[in-house]
Specification:
CATH superfamily of one domain: P-loop containing nucleotide triphosphate hydrolases
Shape: globular
CATH topology of one domain: Rossmann fold
Strand content: 25-35%
Number of strands: 10
CATH architecture of one domain: 3-Layer(aba) Sandwich
CATH class of one domain: Alpha Beta
């Protein structure tokens, strides 16, 4: 479905953010992009969705193809029409609009009004917590409710590939678990492919099929999610667990023994 082939990305023709990044997402697959802040995860999503163009960024080398169409030269509105929808980092709701109005914004390019109304209830089936708040101004929602809303808004476009940027950011552990269970269910029920950016490695690898670790704009480790979960470096550096399973803080991990090998 999605093929990102050796792309490099620069902002304002000066700042190089990605260096030779390659990845793929198959139909119905969940692929996780993992790593610390500044690694290039969000930039990768924006390269796929076309949002780089709104921030003076561009793909300077390589190519991105979706369902056989090259898309790295297209604008975000054209990419959305092809079936890619992005839920941005930071719960960017339209605060002065109601929950229901926010969801309708997600379907703004669709012409099938009856289908849009049906899909509104479809989204509420997955997120019953926001159904009872459908008339409330979105700015008054809690952080977890806003996160559910932005995912629901992306779903309203009926994408075949959904891009999720840090869905756990700033949320309590129980809310993270709830939202990830819903994401897993959406993927299983709808066979919707998902490219997921996440710093919460444990949560992401619990639902992903495959994962990539990005550091300084490069992919340094890739493999099936199960292999990454068992990888000693991933467990120690990103999950805070030593080889014997004792909890460690990031500050206590003095050396990230990155093994320059590919899993799977």
């Amino acid at each position: 479905m999605l093929e990102v082939n050796n792309i490099e990305v620069a902002y304002m023709n000066v700042i190089q953010a990605l260096r030779g990044v390659s990845l793929s997402v198959a139909d119905g697959q969940i692929v996780a992009l993992l790593g610390a802040n500044g690694g290039g995860k969000t930039t990768t999503l924006k390269a796929v969705s076309g949002m780089l163009k709104t921030e003076e960024g561009e793909v300077t080398e390589g190519s991105i193809a979706f369902d056989g169409h090259r898309i790295d030269r297209l604008g975000p509105e054209d990419i959305a029409v092809l079936g890619i929808s992005q839920a941005m980092e930071g719960r960017r709701v339209l605060e002065r609009l109601s929950v229901e109005e926010n969801l309708f914004v997600g379907a703004y390019r669709r012409k099938d009004r009856r289908g849009v109304k049906q899909d509104l209830e479809w989204v509420f089936d997955y997120f019953p917590a926001i159904k009872r708040l459908r008339r409330r101004m979105s700015g008054y929602l809690s952080g977890g409710e806003q996160q559910m809303l932005v995912i629901g808004r992306a779903m309203m476009a009926r994408p075949t590939l959904m891009l999720l940027d840090e869905p756990s950011l700033g949320l309590a552990p129980l809310l993270v678990q709830e939202i990830y269970e819903i994401i897993r269910k959406i993927n299983a029920d709808q066979k919707m492919a998902i490219l997921l950016v996440e710093q919460n490695v444990r949560a992401a690898l619990a639902i992903a099929d495959y994962g990539h670790v990005l550091e300084n704009g490069r992919v340094v480790l890739s493999g099936p999610a199960e292999d990454l979960r068992d990888n000693e470096d991933i467990r120690e550096f990103y999950m805070g667990l030593s080889a014997v399973g004792s909890k460690k803080s990031y500050r206590e991990v003095k050396h990230y023994r990155r093994r320059k090998r590919w899993l799977g």
